[in-house]
Amino acid sequence: MTNKDWYIIDAKEAVLGRLATKVATVLKGKHKPTYQPHVDNGDYIVVINAESIRVTGNKLEDKVYYRHTGYVGNMKKTNLSKMMSKDPSFVILNAVKGMLPKNPLGRSMLKKLKIYNNEQHNHAAQKPKKIEI
Question: What is the CATH number of the domain that holds 91?
């Protein structure tokens, strides 16, 4: 069994894609010399200030999130700017989820990600180390 460390990332003014790749790398454990693709030896990540991330280009208007209600013809669309005002943590979670494996291993990796919209978090007892983006 490997030791699971805790890291904290301040997402203030961080670009969404670059933040998501760094988070996915640490969740997978690719930053460790003991990395194996079939073993979950990644670390815990706490992301704070999720509401102040930024994107490049016209993604605020052009990027669209789709969901289906289950009824015929009820495909709902929401662009990134509305999703950021509604739930900023979903945007980061969705970006990281797309970079993890699509199997039970990836779902267990995603449980180690904690996202908070502002500065307050309740993981100070774990003494997380700061990661710069």
Answer: 3.90.1180.10
On whether residue 52 sits in a domain, the answer given is: yes
Residue 97: closest CA among 65, 58, 53, 59: 65
Model pTM score:
0.93
For the stretch 36-87, pLDDT in tens is 999 999 999 999 999 999 999 999 999 999 999 999 999 999 999 999 999 9
- The answer to the question of residue 67 being in a domain is no
Give 47's Cβ-side CA count (13 Å radius).
Answer: 30
17, part of any domain: yes
**Of residues 117, 110, 64, 67, the one with CA closest to residue 87:** 117
Q: What is the largest CA-CA distance in the chain?
A: 49
Look at residue 76 and tell me if it is in a domain: no
- Per the structure, how many domains does the chain have? 1
